[in-house]
Write a structure and sequence with these properties.
about 70% helix; Thrombin, subunit H; 10 strands; about 15% strand; about 400 residues; two-stranded antiparallel ribbon; alpha+beta; 3 helices; elongated; Helix Hairpins; 2 domains
């Protein structure tokens, strides 16, 4: 016993030292993790700041490009309007030219007279001179309109090309902005995750410190208990000697009682066989399975005390209730696979020849089984009989 107490004290001391070493290692590891987490948080914060500045610059460039695109679209609209006006003027001048040509074609040709021209001939010459002058002016104007129209068309193509380039650049900026937004969201999630991890590490550190204090208190308490156990050991050793003496006396009395009970059991089995053979002549096989035979109570006197045993033999009794789980609504019976019990088998529970409940097997082992309570007429108790239906 003294060696056992020493071993307990040594084991407690080793446990305390191991707990201190474990706490120190845990604290060092936690501190390293905290330092790494802080460094990662600082780096991610710097990256976020850089990304936010880049995002602001890209947003500013995007707004400038949108303004530029708006001005280009306005200029394109203005050029298109001027082009339409010049087209109208060109069509009008072309129409006037065609009308003048038609008028010239429809005028009769007058042959020159050998005599001197009169006043009427002078008027016609002036008319035709005016017509030719107007025609020449219209042709010059038409050429100018063609040139202006071509210039406007060239400007329009250049404006459309610039608009297309601006739209492509704007799309690229939008894509860059979306990529930066995604990266910024990812970095923010990383920062949030690191913050939560830091909080969790601090909480774990506080929990470890609390556990160390608890272990110290338990160590002090265990030392006190060891002292108390050492004191109680002596009294237990004294009591153990007395118990050994009583044990020897009880063993002798039990041996005598077992001999008497064995003799009475053999007599009971012979009586049971005689009764079954006498009843078998008048009853059918089914009736014999449904009835139970009660044998008289046998009183055995052993060592000045009275030992009483009541034996009942029930038809189709297979086992007993070992335990009941009322919360989960199932029972444990002392029969299993060795007795050919299978999952789904139905058994009835009896107490004092009264039907108490019906159960269904849900799990089986070699010598025990678990069964759900399907019907309960009364509360099942440990030791109730288990019979087949």
């Amino acid at each position: 016993m003294e060696k056992g107490s020493k071993l307990i004290v040594i084991a407690l001391a080793l446990l305390f030292l191991l707990s201190l070493v474990f706490a120190y290692n845990s604290n060092s590891g936690k501190q390293q993790i905290l330092n790494r987490s802080k460094e990662m948080e600082r780096v991610l914060t710097e990256k976020n700041s850089g990304l936010q500045s880049q995002l602001a610059q890209i947003d500013q460039d995007r707004r400038l490009l949108q303004d530029k695109l708006g001005s280009i679209q306005s200029e394109i609209g203005k050029i298109a309007s001027e082009r339409d006006d010049w087209k109208k003027k060109y069509e009008l001048a072309k129409k006037e030219k065609e009308e003048l040509i038609e008028q010239i074609k429809t005028k009769p040709v007058v042959l020159e007279q050998p005599f001197a021209p009169t006043g009427k001939t002078g008027i016609k010459d002036e008319y035709w001179a005016g017509v030719l002058e107007e025609k020449t002016a219209l042709e010059i104007r038409l050429q100018e309109l063609d040139k202006v129209l071509k210039d406007n068309l060239i400007k329009l193509k250049e404006a459309k090309k610039e608009k297309s380039d601006t739209e492509l650049e704007l799309g690229s900026l939008k894509q860059s902005k979306e990529e930066l937004d995604r990266q910024l969201d990812y970095n923010q999630q990383m920062v949030s995750s690191l913050s939560r991890e830091l909080v969790r590490e601090k909480s774990d550190k506080a929990s470890i410190i609390e556990q160390i204090d608890k272990i110290r208190k338990e160590n002090i308490s265990l030392r006190k208990q060891v002292k108390e156990l050492s004191s109680a050991k002596l009294s237990l050793e004294k009591g153990l000697k007395n118990l050994e003496n009583e044990k020897d006396n009880l063993a002798e009395r039990i041996s005598t009682t077992e001999d008497i009970l064995s003799t009475r059991m053999r007599e009971l089995l012979e009586i049971k066989k005689d009764l079954e053979s006498s009843l078998g002549a008048g009853l059918s096989g089914e009736a014999r399975q449904s009835e139970s035979v009660e044998l008289p109570t046998i009183v055995v006197k052993a060592g000045g005390q009275q030992a009483t045993q009541s034996i009942q033999t029930k038809a189709k009794e297979m086992g007993k209730i070992l335990s009941i789980n009322e919360n989960q609504n199932f029972v444990i019976i002392d029969i299993g696979e060795n007795q050919n019990v299978k999952i789904g088998d139905i058994f009835r529970i009896f107490r004092n020849n009264q039907h108490v409940a019906t159960v269904e097997v849900i799990q089986t082992r070699k010598d025990i089984s678990a069964a759900d309570i399907k019907y309960s007429k009364d509360k099942i108790a440990t030791g109730d009989s288990v019979t087949s239906p």
